[in-house]
């Protein structure tokens, strides 16, 4: 090895840091308190976002159902009014 060669490195997505890409370094890093806290925090964040997304979708679904119900009611009232007008027109 007469020339310089870089050692492979691995990026930890939870800790946002680079570590040597070899088994002992990776295991040492993953056993660390900071890494475990970061993983737990990431899992909690994913759960929270998932719950918020589900609530938001449910709220939107309810709003759309209410809008559709109001539209159907207005449509039925319009149809009744139009039928009433057509009866008056025929009588005249």
From TrEMBL:
GO terms for cellular component: precatalytic spliceosome. Its main location: nucleus. It holds the Pfam family zf-U1. SMART domains: ZnF_U1. Keywords: Metal-binding, Nucleus, Zinc, Zinc-finger. One of its GO terms (molecular function) is RNA binding. Transmembrane segments: none annotated. It is found in: Nucleus. InterPro entries: Matrin/U1-C_Znf_C2H2 (IPR000690), Matrin/U1-like-C_Znf_C2H2 (IPR003604), U1-CZ_Znf_C2H2 (IPR013085), WBP4 (IPR040023), Znf_C2H2_sf (IPR036236). GO terms for biological process: mRNA splicing, via spliceosome. Residues 10-41 form the Matrin-type domain. This is Matrin-type domain-containing protein. It comes from Pygocentrus nattereri.
């Amino acid at each position: 090895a007469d020339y310089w060669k870089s050692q492979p490195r691995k990026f930890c997505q939870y800790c946002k840091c680079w570590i040597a890409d070899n088994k002992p370094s990776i295991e040492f890093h993953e056993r660390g308190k900071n890494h475990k806290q970061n993983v737990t925090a990431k899992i909690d964040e994913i759960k929270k976002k998932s719950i918020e997304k589900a609530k938001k979708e449910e709220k939107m679904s309810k709003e759309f159902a209410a809008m559709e119900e109001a539209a159907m009611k207005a449509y039925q009232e319009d149809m009744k009014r139009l039928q009433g007008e057509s009866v008056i027109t025929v009588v005249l």
